[in-house]
Amino acid sequence: MLNKRFHIKTMGCQMNEYDSDFLAQSLIQNGFSPEKDIHRADLILINTCVVRAKPEQKAYSFLGRMANLKETNPELVVGMIGCLAQMKGKELMKRFPLVDFVMGPRELGRILEIVKDIYDRRQRVVATGLSVAPPPPVKRTGYFRNQTSGFISIMEGCNNFCSYCIVPYVRGREYSRAPKDILDEARYLLSEGMREITLLGQNVNSYAWKDENTWNFASLLDAVTDLHDLHRLRFTTSHPKDLSEDLLACFRNMDKLAGHIHLPFQAGSNRILKLMHRGYTREEYLENIDKLRMSKDNIAITSDVMVGFPGETEEDFQFTLDLMQQVEFDSLFSFKYSDRDGTPAAKMPDKISEGVKVSRLKRLQTLQNSITLKKNRNLEGRQLTVLVEGTSKKGGQLTGRTGSNKVVNFDGNPGMVGTLVEVAIEAAYLNSLKGQVIEH
Ligand code: 5AD
Ligand code: SF4
After folding, report:
1. Which of 155, 221, 318, 335 makes the best surface tag, with the fewest CB within 10 Å?
2. Whose CA is nearest to atom 2 of ligand 1?
3. Contact in structure between 409 and 398 (CB atoms under 8 Å)
4. How many domains does the chain have?
5. Is 136 part of any domain?
6. Whose CA is closest to atom 4 on ligand 2?
7. Nearest to 170 by CA among 13, 336, 337
8. Ligand 2 binding residues, C-beta < 6 A
9. In sequence order, what are the residues at sequence separation of 6 or more whose Cβ sits closer than 8 angstroms to the Cβ of residue 69?
10. How far is the CA of 129 from the centre of ligand 2 (A)?
11. Terminus-to-terminus CA distance in the chain, angstroms?
12. Are the C-beta atoms of 434 and 409 separated by less than 8 Å?
């Protein structure tokens, strides 16, 4: 299989980026080389997402556009990876003759075996087992992000079964990775020059492992922050119902733990939260916010929310806006609810019309933009510590992030990449800040 060129198209979440990185490294270590131009690739992998209807549609239209690639390259092998592959399996191959194999997120460890099988025997393969353990660690190079900041998956799957969510069905039940593997991977990233690590999982707070010690999420954070070259540790995503006193203590005591938490609230109305099976009330959510703010000065809080869940009334929606005004999130990912086949919410009555969803989403985003801008403007004149990630998209300047995960652009020299610098913030925009380095 030497001298083959591969191209990976990644859609969806950070977990998918991490999985694509795993695939890229497995292929590179076995003689494949990465290829940016899809038309020149011998192997194309499309890593997909199905958490909402929109990314699923995106994957279909991408496949549609690729339909005749095999006319110019009959040797081409195309694989669908990830959640869509898991959910649709064989059906995808029927609908898209171009696809040679489908492989779910729990089968990634079989990539070389499957690709080899297809090159040898030209048979289509469906690999969508859910009981398979996550793949073994490979050395990662941050192929899909930058050289300063890398991801490590600490757990797979989810046991929460929120009523709207497809994740537990396509990613399977929760499965924590051994602390030893996580720490080895962290040491490797640091030895490659990375200085920031983000621990990933659908629900990191329920991380659990038992060897000679009993591990929970807080003890894992403790072990990772002990690593010498690490400047900053992040994690995502947390579930509000599992926010523990232990984790609050981590924010109080661990200097390397970034002052940011992503804590999806999904809805502000108790009636809707109950229908969603979220396991907390708005009052409990607000209490968590107070505790977080007491544990860490200026902690940044970001969240996910959706509008138009079945049965959501204008009054329910007002509770969502009201919660946003009370909390003042630093930023917010907002979505229109979409039915996912097989979830309880898809069968619920009183679906909300597209027009109402669009209008609620717009009102919500207008409110959040004003909050985000106000919060960013409060940072003007302040001095913030920035981890430098590289050169900014517009070129010329350097770009990095604050502990609170805000993007900062400033003039500097490329030698600063991978270091912490102090930046005086001069101007604030909706999605970034601008400043001047005051100390290196
Ligand atoms: N419809 C709309 N948004 C959804 N999300 C999850 N499932 C759905 C759905 N069926 C959103 C949630 C979650 C984020 C990753 O995607 O807000 O936190
Ligand atoms: Fe989906 Fe809920 Fe699990 Fe998050 S916690 S992945 S929303 S089921």
Report:
1. 318
2. 337
3. yes
4. 4
5. no
6. 202
7. 13
8. 158, 160-162, 165, 167-168, 202-203, 239
9. 38, 39, 44, 76, 78, 98
10. 20
11. 47
12. yes
Identify whether the C-beta of residue 144 lies closer than 8 Å to the C-beta of residue 24.
yes
> Residue 408 pairs with which residues in a beta bridge?
400, 433
Taking a C-beta distance cutoff of 8 angstroms, is the pair 87, 103 a contact?
A: no
Q: What are residue 409's DSSP bridge partners?
A: 399, 434
CA dihedral 349, 355, 358, 362 (to 10 degrees): -120
Using DSSP bridges, classify how beta strands 407-410 and 398-402 pair: parallel, antiparallel or unpaired: antiparallel
Task: Judge if the beta carbon of residue 309 lies within 6 A of ligand 1.
Answer: no
* Cα 417 from chain centre: 23
Instruction: Find the 170 Cα to ligand 1 centroid distance in Å.
Output: 14
Q: 19 and 116 share a domain?
A: yes
pLDDT exceeds cutoff 90 at 74: no
**Model confidence over 271-284: pLDDT tens digits?**
999 999 999 999 99
Closest ligand 2 atom to 278 CA: 2
Say if residue 319's pLDDT is above 90.
yes
Given a cut of 70, whether residue 139 has pLDDT beyond it is no
Task: Give a yes or no: residue 142 inside a domain.
Answer: no
Most confident of 154-158, 199-203, 269-273: 269-273
In a domain? residue 141: no
Q: Tell me which DSSP letter residue 345 carries.
A: G
CATH number of the domain where residue 181 is located: 3.30.750.210
- CA of 56, nearest ligand number: 1
CA distance 419 to 415: 8
User: Domain with 319 in it: what CATH number?
Assistant: 3.30.750.200
> In the predicted model, is pLDDT for residue 380 greater than 80?
yes
Contacts of 115 (CB under 8 A, 6+ apart): 1, 27, 43, 77, 79, 101
Which tens digit of pLDDT belongs to each residue from 10-38? 887 788 888 888 898 889 888 899 999 99
For residue 74, how far is its CA from the centre of ligand 2 (angstroms)? 41
164 lines ligand 1 (CB under 6 A): yes
Cα–ligand 2 centroid distance for 162 (angstroms): 6
Q: Are 227 and 256 contacting, i.e. CB atoms less than 8 angstroms apart?
A: no
Query: Which residue among 258, 282, 307 closes a domain?
Result: 258
CB atoms closer than 10 angstroms to residue 212 = 4
Give 276 Cα–ligand 2 centroid separation in angstroms.
Answer: 10
Q: How far is the CA of 238 from the centre of ligand 2 (A)?
A: 10
* 355 and 403 together in one domain: no
Q: Residue 171 belongs to what domain range?
A: 148-258
DSSP letters of 34-56? E-S-GGG-SEEEEEE--SSHHHH
pLDDT value of position 49? 86
